[in-house]
Design a protein that fits this description.
Strand content: 5-15%
Number of helices: 5
Distance between the termini: 78 Å
Radius of gyration: 32 Å
Order of helices and strands: HEHHHEEH
Shape: elongated
Helix content: over 70%
Number of strands: 3
Largest sheet: 3 strands, parallel
Amino acid sequence: MKKVTLILMMALMCLTGFAQTDSVAFKYAYLSYDSVMVAMPEYAEMQTSMAQLRDQYSAEQKRVENDFNQKYEDFLDGQATFPKTILQKRQSELQELLDKNIAFKKESQQLLNQAEAQQIATMREMINIIVSIIAQERGYAFVLNSDKQAVTFVNPAMGEDITEAVKQAINERDTKDKK
């Protein structure tokens, strides 16, 4: 029994010694996705196109609202003189128009959100590709996103902030694309 215990202790000590000598220091990086995204030319283009799209939907909503208000005023003006059947018909037309206006408003908001989400997803994909390239070139084990308090503390002695490197790589990519 003593021999088995001695052999197990020796094996455990050997394994512990190997585990300590084989540990490899790894490097990691971190960046602010939001900061990189805001610096992208595509972000400014997205803001402009989204503002134009919002203005178009807003103008259409205003036009439809004015049309409804005009019909409602006409209804109120003639309400006292309309026969019951015409009154009911106009009321149902107004209700239908109101329902369509509400549905259009909801749909336009969904379409705006969807368009913005698509454009942001495309930009995030570009950032991911560039981050991946930089991480592989510099030998990082992983890259953290430091936005929205996702990381409470990052030791700058052990990790590297690559936010500026990613911004620079994006600017270089844009410069190459324009040539």
